[in-house]
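Entries read sequence, tokenised fold; example below:

***
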Amino acid sequence: MATIGKPEMPILRETPDQIYQRIANRMADLARQRGETPPATDEGELFYDFEYPLAAEISEQQQLLEYGFIQRFLPWADGEFLDANGVFFGLSRNEGETDDAYRQRLIDRARSEEGDGRRQDYERWARNVEGVGGAVAIEKARSDLSIDVYITDMSGQPASAELADLVRRKLEDKRRALHDLQVLPANVYPVTISVRLILRPDAEMDKIQEQITNQIKTYLKGRSQIVYQQIGAFFFVDGVVDFTDYTLNGGEVNLTVPADAVSSLNMVVTT
């Protein structure tokens, strides 16, 4: 799903200084209309001491108002507000399910019609089962009437055989009579990254490799296209001066992860 940017509402994001300046300007205008000398408004003056705390309070209330406004919309709701959206759609949050995963399920539900038995329906039905993190349904894997659903667990790794069997049984009641349905653990797509790092003399290799590995694993999760140049940016962590001899699965080209697979990283780092 394409990222939907939050609406711009600058009037609800004024700083205390901006609000105070508007108050001071109004006060000065009012004084001039009355033929009076405007009061001193610099920091430390009596007017400042009385009005600036009020400006700060207004600024905080604007932030709360913006937050409350944003939470009314499913693409940006989080926490208990996201759970409230789930009540509306009749889908509760699974145990341990993150806001992002739960939000995506709700958006999928909002965009889909129940009961058509299409590929998207099987994906949605599978993701609604406790313990399933992701699901991809592939049509015509064996015949024109077959559906294969490949699933991952909540950590994004191939699901266990037990979880796949559970999902298969839960989907049985929804299965269309002519569909040959299989639920399978996602396949593993090996990704081997080899690189030689040039480090500062005081750099700790173990910490550097751990940080780079974690960043790349986050990048790979759920990604269908692995971009060679983007991976290279992750090597520049604190302590790394430069890198060379970088290959991605033995080459220097982008990779495409099969729809039925999740990436499994193997890092080969030398100095």
